[in-house]
Amino acid sequence: MIIGGMRAADIADEFGTPVYVTDESIVRENYRKVYEAFSKHMDTRVHYACKANSSLAILSILEQHMRKFEEGDDAEALINQARNSISSST
Length: 90
What we know:
Helix 3 runs antiparallel to helix 4 (74-89). The protein is mainly alpha-helical. A two-stranded antiparallel sheet has the order 1-2. The termini are far apart. The longest helix has 16 residues, at 24-39. A hairpin with a 2-residue loop joins strand 1 (2-3) and strand 2. It has 4 helices and 2 strands, in the order ββαααα. It has one domain (24-89).
């Protein structure tokens, strides 16, 4: 199995197991697909449920796309909300 150009076994050897791995290019591609599918037909804003996965790395990737496609501070607010909830739970 290849994840982000690396063999899963090599990732496990380097970081140990269990390990949670996300392919950044897939996150970007999926966001783009969702946005483009809906924006062809209507004004579109994509929202992300931080409770589903509050990984700051993933939120940072999504923030970059949200700023490309959407106006306003929603992406920044999303990141700040996630950071605050993570810091308050530790």
